[in-house]
# Entry
Amino acid sequence: MATTLKTNDFMEIMKGRRSIRNYDPAVKISKEEMAEILEEATTAPSSVNAQPWRFMVIDSPEGKEKLAPLAKFNQTQVSTSAAVIAVFADMKSNEYLDEIYSKAVEQGYMPQEVKERQIAALTAHFEVLPEHVNRETILIDGGIVSMQLMLAARAHGYDTNPIGGFDKEVIAETFGWDKERYVPVMLLSIGKAADEGYASYRLPIERITEWK
# Structure
């Protein structure tokens, strides 16, 4: 897939990021470019490379109308953004491991015998893995991919806002997903900023770090 970056300056991408709440509603993102952004985001690492993230791109008027009552105090992001991406974590992501590892073998990333050994070990692992441990792990992976998604969006010239204030209990089933399987991580509004956003203070490293 071709990449249509606006900038490849990592420091500008990272340090210039702002949480944008108000977007230019005239700016849309094509399905092709959104797919590029998501593909770039999914180069993020995940536990045993299970890639538990699942994305729901809400960009239609009908989808946004469904989302609005669930988004609480984040109505401006929903109404003005090009899209809101709901990031979920899949409680059954281990079901994809054979496919993922088989493709790794096919593409020369992993020998067949390593794949077979790892799949056997991981199958046994997931059979006894406590649900709460699985949930904690996939939520961490969901957070990692969400940050990478925000940076990828900036590289394409768009801005984002991570949103935790939404109705996590009903969002999956509102859009027809199994709420027991798909755990909401966050919403990410994405679009072209209508204002510059605000810089924010970060604690100095000596306040938050110890060397041992």
Q: What stands out?
A: The first strand starts at residue 53 and ends at 58. The domain at 10-194 is CATH 3.40.109.10 (NADH Oxidase). The chain is about 40% helix and 15% strand. The first helix runs from residue 10 to 15.
